[in-house]
């Protein structure tokens, strides 16, 4: 479904992503892991085109998306979250979900404040995620985990086929973490393809069908969780990074 081919992103002399190739199979939960500074977020940014890659190709269902603008990629069915919540100031959760989802594309500027259809859809998604109770709370008063759920709700507004989640477990308390894991599984059971960047190895091992390991901008391993767990190059990369 998603194919990353020889992707590179250089910042001056820094090769943040240095010729990465991997695939995210349709219907899978795939994790992109690696020590700090491995290039995972930069790869995510290149795939969602929040950063322009230096070279390489990204294909979604066989079509190149690396030349497209981010909102076009979203319309083609790929949406992402960010490590830090994009909570918009002075907005309720409901408003956030609707307005975050609108960002990108000049046509959005001409939409009414809150359209009835958007509100219905957002409330359905909040219900699906079990967070209707916080729909009218100020987004900035939420816990870290609730913000992650709010961002996930915003992501689902575009009816994506594939979602990219940047550290869905980062800073989240254990109870909410299990909720988030449950939602990711539920979405995947319904056919959603998922790519996650995550440092919580227990979660990665439990959740993923496939793991891609990056170190120093390159893919050093790619396989099933049980293969990755035993892979000496992966153990070396992590121990070397500590
Ligand atoms: P972490 O797990 O800590 O989030 P990561 O694997 O996501 O790390 P990146 O954030 O992609 O790694 O960073 C990869 C490398 O690129 C790092 O050396 C980082 O300092 C560098 N880098 C990332 N963004 C920029 C930038 N805008 N300008 C210069 N260097 C950058």
Automatic annotation (TrEMBL):
Transmembrane segments: none
Keyword Cell cycle: no
Example GO molecular function: ATP binding
GO CC, alphabetical: plasma membrane
Keyword Transport: yes
Keyword terms of this UniProt record: ATP-binding, Nucleotide-binding, Transport
Residue ranges constituting the ABC transporter domain according to the UniProt record: 2-241
Family to which this protein belongs: Belongs to the ABC transporter superfamily.
Name assigned to this protein: ABC transporter ATP-binding protein
Organism classification: Bacteria, Pseudomonadati, Pseudomonadota, Alphaproteobacteria, Hyphomicrobiales
